[in-house]
């Protein structure tokens, strides 16, 4: 069995960053919230708003924590490699965790498993799996294939965006900045502009991932 060092180290870095942010924003909870508390409350309201777009109100609380943690972790994971990339002796240690399809497909698989579990919990095994036989029994093949394609597209979409963003940054640095002189002057603003745009894309992809996760969970609950 082999382990991807970059995934493990990068994941731990994201975890530490998020714990530090949550601790700093929540250590002074009061009825008159400060900037940190306001930020956390806004983020919770934002992710709950995503859930309310697809789920009934009585189900929102059950998945609120998952949506909140998922969005926060994905956003930091999507943008980490834009600002911090560490390699040692030719081995990458720190980059965006979501630039590896194994990581994004793991998140995707987690969502699909939660959707199945939620469906079984609400409908029972028989009623839940009977949904795969609608509208016709032979349709089970299409319904199972749809689950598989949902799993793939959910994970590979975010991987493609993050991976291409990091690759373009490397191209700007190695092909332009490394030449020095006027090329270096041109590379700096290009890199800053692309970093800013990639942060925006990272936020959009985290939003899309959570939104689609909510849709798939709603389908599992029979709310489509």
TrEMBL record:
It is found in: Cell membrane; Membrane. GO terms for molecular function: proton-transporting ATP synthase activity, rotational mechanism. Pfam families: ATP-synt_A. Keywords: ATP synthesis, Cell membrane, CF(0), Hydrogen ion transport, Ion transport, Membrane, Transmembrane, Transmembrane helix, Transport. InterPro entries: ATP_syn_F0_a_bact/chloroplast (IPR045082), ATP_synth_F0_asu (IPR000568), F0_ATP_A_sf (IPR035908). The keyword Transmembrane applies. Key component of the proton channel; it plays a direct role in the translocation of protons across the membrane. The chain crosses the membrane at residues 6-25, 62-82, 102-120, 193-218. It comes from the Bacteria. CDD domains: ATP-synt_Fo_a_6. This is ATP synthase subunit a. NCBIfam families: ATP_synt_6_or_A (TIGR01131). Gene3D superfamilies: ATP synthase, F0 complex, subunit A.
């Amino acid at each position: 069995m082999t382990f991807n060092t970059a995934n493990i180290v990068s994941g731990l870095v994201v975890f530490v960053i998020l714990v530090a942010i949550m601790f700093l924003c929540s250590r002074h909870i009061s009825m008159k919230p400060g900037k940190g508390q306001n930020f956390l409350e806004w983020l919770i309201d934002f992710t709950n708003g995503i859930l309310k777009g697809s789920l009934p109100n009585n189900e929102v609380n059950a998945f609120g924590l998952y949506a909140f943690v998922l969005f926060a972790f994905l956003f930091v994971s999507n943008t980490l490699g834009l600002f911090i990339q560490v390699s040692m002796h030719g081995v990458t240690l720190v980059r965006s965790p979501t630039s590896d399809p194994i990581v994004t497909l793991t998140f995707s698989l987690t969502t699909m498993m939660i959707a199945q579990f939620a469906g079984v919990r609400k409908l029972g095994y028989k009623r839940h799996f009977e949904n795969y036989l609608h509208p016709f029994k032979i349709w089970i093949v299409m319904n199972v294939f749809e689950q598989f394609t949902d799993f793939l597209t959910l994970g590979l979409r975010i991987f493609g965006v993050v991976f291409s963003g990091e690759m373009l940054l490397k191209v700007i640095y190695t092909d332009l900045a490394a030449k020095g002189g006027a090329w270096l002057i041109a590379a700096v603003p290009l890199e800053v502009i692309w970093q800013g745009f990639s942060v925006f894309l990272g936020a959009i992809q985290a939003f899309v991932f959570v939104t689609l996760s909510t849709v798939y969970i709603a389908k599992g609950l029979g709310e489509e």
